[in-house]
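Q: Could you fold this chain for me?
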Amino acid sequence: MKRINHKKTNGYTLIQTLLALLVCSICALILSLQASALRKMSCVSPPLQEEFAILQIREMAMLANAIDVENGVLILDQGRREERLAQDGKRLVKRPGYEILMEGVDQARFQKRSGKGIELVVEIDGRKETVLIAESQD
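A: Sure. Below is the predicted structure, expressed as structure tokens.
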């Protein structure tokens, strides 16, 4: 009499299980690396964000064809369009559109100083700061 071996086909083989475990561990590693990178990026201090905003405003001023100040608002002539930088609530924004340059601003205004150029006077959390944006062309 011959014996008939019937293999069970239910379940997974050891190789399939190990491959699934490998894929899951690679995904977990990638997610943990992304989470640590996001955590580091979210810890940027407010003074550093303010410095980036000032650099961005200076760059916009350098690229503009003409610069003017009206009632504390910086007007940048970009050729076909005109951009205005002004305070809106507790933010310093660029219009048209609504690009936020600084947040948490108590007061922000641009002013022309003869011999110096255009300055931004900004007050954040009771700290008042005057920053040169564009030097005078005189």
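A (continued): The first helix runs from residue 14 to 41.
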